């Protein structure tokens, strides 16, 4: 590891005078406290120079909450899931154009350019991902249907359905200091798509960067009124003003999470509370991953990255290296060599620096105190030093990477004490069961990496530790280069973990949107379910007459229906289809073998023959609004069809999804095939693209 003096750095960040108070944005306007308020000083992480001051004294938080519940709920409620998702995409594009300014400001938090990319670009990436998934996986409406309809009566007159609707309150998002941009955007995005207004409360040491992002968001003019508010400084009595309509999403220390969870409005008042807290994440080196293997090298690279990225200030950083007995010294040597060769500690604005300081001197002191406790608990430093790094600004919050070794892998300290910085500990296991037990000693964590190329080892370890972790990364020679990494949550997958990690989930694609919604079971007749969900249910009213394929999206309604048939199936038809397709499965071609099959009465028609014929029975052939068949879903064959049987088809407009940015939309049609005895032969959904006009 190389130390680079602060003397060579150049501060290219925005000018921020020492008497500037970071403002809040509430009630759709900027707010600052009275000039005589004593504000908390915020310092440059590398130099100790004052960057700004922060205070929320005098802020009417009750009014902030009420503004979200009224103005924010009303403006977001006018939009559909797709419309909100498109606004997120536009916001991502806008923020992508101001990244350089944000990078410069981010450097004052101690972040290198790579660290800033993880924070800033990562946050913008969440906007794009959630926007895309919202448009692809949710309807263009305000109700999300969960699962299939449940029949509750013999005649179909009474059914049940689960739906999701947005919670009627506000999402209060309390974020940690280490990700002032990503932490806000990854919570804002799903709440926004759900249609729930957000109140952001960033951590004070880096909240000035969050404020800069909010300022740009507002300048874009993209978000509707009341959708976003910002509290700079203490949130004080915020939870006092919340109730069962609201949600609090917290990221930070387990101690603070416990305090917030114990608030009467959470315990008794029904405030939804999710937390993502500190976590003693592990990296297990498989017994097959010996020195010289690609897995060993990938493991070492991952450890160095996670110890130094954001100066180890990540809730997902590797804290425990769990390696096979006898391999500890090899791992320590390899980590030390890579650290010395690739890591340069210093002011992130200086050329060549790859690791910056901690976010504040207070954070530095906490990390060093935790290192001392780890030593008292049986650890010894085998790489690095707890002394102040030479060549760095004494006013900065610098800590060199530290690796401790524990002779006793069962030592409570290694499984209970987290130094939230560039600090990790290494312990040895005797067999896979021991490795699993050691990983579980962390009491629940966000992520563990398993480095192995042996499928049986991977299966044993993953199934043994999965229930103790929110995410498991399997690292080997195949994915070492393409992997997003141990410490990088992705918006497609859940971020969170059981036990000490907080016991909650964030992200996870559309799951994160549903966290901001209420699942409700609705019961009623098919017509009532159709009216509420906007999706046609079997037994609900239908409209016939003009063929629905002659109707544009503007004219088409759910329940529009056409029928076709009957058509008689002959043995010659089945034989010809077998010859034309090459599908000569015995049930279609061999009478004796087919008769011996307990599922068939003898020769039967191909299911795909019936589906093809059904299309011929319901299609209107002339050019019209229907542009293309885009898919077929949920196909089920129910009753076999023999030569001499006939089929007929009923096609009903089930769901209509206009696309916001195209001149067409998608229509899902409910298709049902019956035979001459009115028995259901097959059911499926047909997807078509239909012009709006």
UniProtKB/TrEMBL annotation:
Residues 32-459 form the Aldehyde dehydrogenase domain. Keywords: Oxidoreductase. Gene3D superfamilies: Aldehyde Dehydrogenase, Chain A, domain 1 (3.40.605.10), Aldehyde Dehydrogenase, Chain A, domain 2 (3.40.309.10), Hotdog Thioesterase (3.10.129.10). InterPro entries: Ald_DH/histidinol_DH, Ald_DH_C, Ald_DH_N, Aldehyde_DH_dom, HotDog_dom_sf, MaoC-like_dom, PaaN-DH. The keyword Oxidoreductase applies. Residues 566-663 form the MaoC-like domain. CDD domains: ALDH_MaoC-N (cd07128). PANTHER family: ALDEHYDE DEHYDROGENASE B-RELATED (PTHR43111:SF1). Belongs to the aldehyde dehydrogenase family. This is Phenylacetic acid degradation bifunctional protein PaaZ. It comes from Cryobacterium sandaracinum. The lineage of its organism: Bacteria, Bacillati, Actinomycetota, Actinomycetes, Micrococcales.
């Amino acid at each position: 590891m190389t130390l680079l003096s602060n003397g060579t750095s150049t501060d290219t960040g925005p000018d921020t005078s020492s008497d500037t108070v970071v403002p809040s944005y509430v009630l759709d306007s900027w707010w600052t406290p009275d000039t005589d308020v004593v504000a908390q000083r915020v310092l440059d992480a590398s130099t100790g120079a004052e960057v700004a001051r922060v205070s929320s004294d005098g802020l009417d938080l009750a009014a902030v909450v009420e503004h979200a519940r009224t103005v924010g709920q009303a403006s977001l409620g006018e939009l559909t899931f797709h419309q909100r998702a498109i606004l997120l995409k536009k916001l991502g594009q806008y923020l992508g154009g101001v990244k350089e300014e944000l990078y410069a400001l981010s450097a004052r938090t101690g972040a290198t350019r790579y660290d800033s990319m993880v924070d800033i670009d990562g946050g913008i990436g969440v906007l794009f991902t959630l926007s895309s998934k919202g448009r692809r996986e949710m309807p263009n409406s305000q109700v999300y249907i969960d699962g299939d309809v449940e029949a509750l009566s013999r005649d179909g007159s009474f059914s049940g359905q689960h739906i999701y609707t947005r919670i009627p309150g506000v999402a209060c998002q309390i974020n940690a200091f280490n990700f002032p941009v990503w932490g806000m955007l990854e919570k804002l995005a799903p709440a926004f798509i759900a249609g729930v207004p957000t109140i952001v409360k960033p951590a004070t040491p880096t909240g000035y960067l969050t404020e800069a992002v909010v300022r740009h968001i507002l300048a874009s003019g993209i978000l509707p009124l009341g959708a976003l508010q910002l509290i700079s400084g203490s949130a004080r009595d915020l939870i006092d003003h919340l109730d069962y309509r609201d949600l609090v999403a917290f990221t930070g220390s387990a101690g603070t999470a416990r305090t917030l969870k114990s608030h009467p409005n959470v315990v008794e008042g029904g405030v939804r509370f999710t937390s993502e807290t500190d976590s003693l994440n592990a990296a297990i080196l498989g017994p097959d991953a010996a020195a010289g293997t690609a897995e060993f090298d990938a493991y070492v690279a991952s450890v160095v990255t996670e110890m130094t990225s954001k100066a180890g200030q990540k809730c997902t950083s590797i804290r425990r290296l769990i390696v096979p007995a006898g391999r500890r010294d090899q791992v320590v040597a390899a980590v030390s060599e890579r650290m010395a060769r690739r890591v340069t500690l210093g002011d992130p604005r200086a050329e060549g620096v790859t690791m910056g300081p901690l976010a504040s001197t207070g954070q530095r002191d906490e990390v060093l105190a935790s290192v001392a406790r780890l030593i008292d608990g049986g650890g010894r430093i085998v790489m690095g030093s707890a002394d102040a790094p030479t060549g760095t600004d004494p006013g900065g919050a610098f800590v060199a990477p530290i690796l401790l070794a524990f002779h006793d892998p069962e030592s409570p300290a290694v499984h209970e004490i987290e130094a939230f910085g560039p600090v990790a500990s290494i312990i040895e296991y005797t067999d896979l069961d021991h490795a699993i037990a050691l990983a579980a000693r962390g009491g629940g964590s966000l992520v563990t990496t398993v480095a192995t190329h042996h499928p049986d080892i991977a299966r044993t370890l993953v199934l043994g530790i999965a229930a103790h972790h929110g995410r498991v990364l399997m690292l080997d020679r195949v994915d070492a280069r393409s992997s997003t990494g141990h410490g990088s949550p992705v918006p497609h997958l859940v971020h969170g973990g059981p036990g000490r990690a907080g016991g909650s989930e964030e992200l996870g694609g559309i799951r994160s949107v549903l966290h901001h919604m209420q699942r409700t079971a609705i019961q009623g007749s098919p017509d009532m379910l159709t009216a509420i969900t906007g999706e046609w249910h079997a037994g609900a009213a239908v409209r016939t007459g003009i063929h629905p394929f002659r109707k544009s999206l503007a004219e088409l309604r759910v329940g529009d229906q056409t029928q076709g048939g009957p058509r008689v199936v002959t043995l010659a038809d089945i034989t010809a289809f077998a010859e034309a397709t090459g599908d000569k499965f015995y049930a279609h071609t061999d009478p004796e073998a087919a008769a011996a099959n307990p599922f068939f009465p003898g020769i039967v028609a191909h299911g795909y023959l019936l589906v093809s014929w059904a299309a011929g029975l319901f299609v209107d052939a002339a050019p019209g609004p229907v542009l293309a068949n885009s898919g077929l879903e949920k196909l089920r064959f129910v009753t076999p069809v023999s030569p001499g049987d006939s089929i007929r088809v009923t096609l009903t407009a089930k769901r209509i999804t206009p696309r916001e940015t195209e001149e067409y939309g998608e229509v899902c049609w409910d298709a049902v095939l019956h035979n001459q005895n009115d028995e259901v032969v097959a059911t499926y959904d047909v997807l078509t693209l239909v012009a709006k006009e």
